[in-house]
Amino acid sequence: MITDAAGKPNPNESDPEKLERLLELELVRKRAEWKETGERYRAYRSMGFVFLFLLVAGALVAAFFVFSRISEQRANQRIPDSPDVVKP
Q: At 9, phi and psi to the nearest 5?
């Protein structure tokens, strides 16, 4: 640390090691903040994919039931016999 003639530290001059430590602490804090933000983003993205998967799976199940019901109704329908045709 640089001192003036009276032996007091000069406030304009700073200790490079102290400045380096402060910068290192600031970087550690920023990295932790970025990591937390990234984890939060990944969680939101994962929840979005799960929601889309459930939505598509529900639509497929609903389509399966609708089409099976339609094919069931078609199988139960019979062509009515016309009255003109005489059966032997």
A: -65, 140
Rounded to whole angstroms, how far apart are CA atoms 34 and 13? Answer: 32
pLDDT digits (tens, 9 = 90+) for 51-78: 999 999 999 999 999 999 998 888 888 6
Would you say 18 and 2 are in contact if contact means Cβ atoms under 8 Å apart?
A: no
Q: For residue 44, how many other CB atoms are within 10 A of its CB?
A: 9
Output the DSSP codes for 49-60.
HHHHHHHHHHHH
- Integer Cα distance of 55 and 46 in angstroms: 14
What pTM did the predictor assign?
A: 0.51
Q: For the beta carbon of residue 77, count every other beta carbon within 10 angstroms.
A: 7
Cβ atoms of 33 and 39 closer than 8 Å = no
